[in-house]
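Practice problem: Putative ribonuclease H protein
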Amino acid sequence: MRFGSKWLGWIWRCISIARFSVLVNEVLAGFFPSTKGLRQGDPLSPYLFVMGMEILSALIRRVVEGGFLSGCRIRGRRRPDFNISHLFFANDTVIFCEAKKENLTHLSWTLFWFEAASGLRINLAKSETIPVGEVEEVDVMAMELGCRVGSLPSYLGLPLGAPNKALSVWDGVEERVRRKLALWKHQYISKGRRITLIKSTMASMPIYQMSLFRMPKVVARRLEKLQRDFLWGGGNLERKAHLVNWEVVCANKEKGGLGLRKLVLLNKALFGKWIWRFACYKENLWKQVISAKYGQEGLGWKTNKANGGVWSRDLEGDFEGNILEHYGGGSLGPEFWLTLEDGSIFWKDGRNGQFGVKEAYSLLVNPNDTTFLKKCIWVDRVPTKVAFFAWEGTCGKVLTLDRLQKIGWQLPNRCFLCGCEEETSIEEDEGEDSGAISNAPTTTQDPANITLVGQTKGAQTMEITNDGGCSIPQDPSVVVD
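Answer key — structure tokens:
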């Protein structure tokens, strides 16, 4: 690579002066020099490895150009074929070739030349020949190369090469969620903790797969059913009443919900990130593959129409109104200076004009004019389980005795505190002069006026006072007006 003799001397000195010693009966047996290789953890190792792989990459390119190795050809629409012959990542190498014995013979010769030129030896015992699709006599071809036959692995739980539209691809996700639920089966988990577990665990398990494949609606319904049953029934998934509609639960807390996410809309928002990356990234290999297969429109901001397959432009309409294309010179602020030759693309609702999944999801959610006093319920110092109960009360969904009687339970209705009046839901106790807040969620007709103040060392209680004469003693931690 035409390095100077002085630089080569430095590198050789760093490698050749290493000395090693071994312990014999817990006594050092003297030092001996290294004859090959580098010391464990030597900082030169990654740099020398990259330089060595440049030699292998050049050899493979020359073999492909000579027609001795085919590589993986991407056939596009009236465009030149795009050929991928090899990929390098750290110390892993993937080489693509046609399933023919001649290709593997030429590849074997190429690896031999690389060993002779670099002094490195490829460990074929740790290498695999992986067939894609139905390949005949794959054992014979693997023997020609001197390695074993393998199969496509899985990455982050996703089997590589699986049909993206098959429902079976998502079976592993549902199975992992059910296994996680089995661990919580015999634990008492408050509803506040259930919200946290749904957001941190159950909803995050399919994220990677959702960012690559379109989730079928039937799969989304099954996974959301597991979330609903866990929220209202606990780890046993008991059949308990779902007190609040799932659409309301999935609304933002500012809109009177719990801030959970609809999986179908989240799937679209994650796909939108790839549309954004396609517009912004110019030289990425995956963009070159997509562009070669489908072609480009709009000076490279988007692809031609792509029906079917993993890549699709069906989602562009969801975000098109929020993408700004900017060409030519000028400035959109000190951090967005563009030359006459360059263009750029900006996201209206994102930070610094950048795409964000959170903002994209908010655009896809059906807008509503509901406002909710989030700061009165979801207070940092108040336990989530207490805030959840207050949220249920605000929605008018607390299972009081009168509500249980309405759904068929045969119970005597008497207040447990005074024993005189009937126990009724909060919104029925609030009369016309109760002063209920007017901008509460529209899911209830007469929502209660609830304000959580904070938490003390004592137990959290609520105060409910109405004209019926029933009063719960006040505690400074929680106040219900």
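Discussion: Residues 1-42 form one domain. Students who identified this feature from the tokens alone can consider the problem solved.
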